[in-house]
Design a protein that fits this description.
The chain is an alpha+beta fold. The chain has a domain of about 100 residues: Ribosomal Protein S5, domain 2 (2-Layer Sandwich). It has 6 helices and 5 strands. It has a 5-stranded mixed beta sheet with strand order 1-2-5-3-4. Helix 4 runs parallel beside helix 5.
Length: about 190
């Protein structure tokens, strides 16, 4: 791994060498570097898909913020039996509706990490649905910080994208955002 790591100077030399090769090919001559490349002596170029370093604090946790509608969730995850604490209360107590509990557990189901991480989060603003979406967004981001290899599966499911849909504002001259006042012909 250390042999494949390239510095900026190495990359600059490679670019200059490539430019010299192109110029030599245009002139019809070859250089020693092209002869070496033909012989197979050149090391292969490192893979472009570099996995990020995990972001873990000194207590072994990963932190992320999630947002949805007007709700903002601050989420910490760490390895554990799968306990979820929201604003100091159990998941089943704070989000009593099973649909909201399912929304929060989706990142773990998709990444097959159910029961492997403890979640502690504080969430404020918005209603229960927005708060559940914010916690889900925060858990997804924290999982990618803890295990960067999970980013692909979470990104594919759309869990890392902030859902920007919010309530449309009411317009003047109308009853609601789009609903007009009742019209009477006579």
């Amino acid at each position: 791994m250390a042999e494949e790591t390239k510095t900026l100077a190495d990359l600059k030399d490679m670019v200059e060498e490539k430019a010299a090769q192109d110029a030599a090919e245009a002139a019809g001559t070859t250089t020693d570097a092209t002869d070496a490349a033909d012989a197979g002596d050149v090391a292969p170029v490192a893979d472009d898909s570099v996995v990020a370093e995990p972001k873990i604090d000194e207590q072994g946790r990963s932190y992320a913020t999630g947002k949805r509608k007007n709700a903002i969730a601050r989420v910490w995850i760490k390895p554990g039996p799968g306990k979820v604490i929201v604003n100091g209360r159990e998941l089943e107590t704070y989000f009593a509706r099973p649909v909201l509990q399912m929304v929060i557990n989706q990142p773990f189901v998709v990444t097959e990490r159910e029961g492997q991480y403890d979640v502690m989060c504080t969430v404020k603003g918005g209603g229960l649905s927005g708060q559940a979406g914010a916690v889900k967004h925060g858990i997804s981001k924290a999982l990618t910080y803890y295990e960067p290899t999970l980013r692909g599966s979470l990104k594919k499911e759309g869990f890392l994208t902030r859902d920007s849909r919010v309530v449309e504002r009411k317009k003047y001259g109308r009853k609601k955002a789009r609903r007009s006042f009742q019209f009477s012909k006579r």
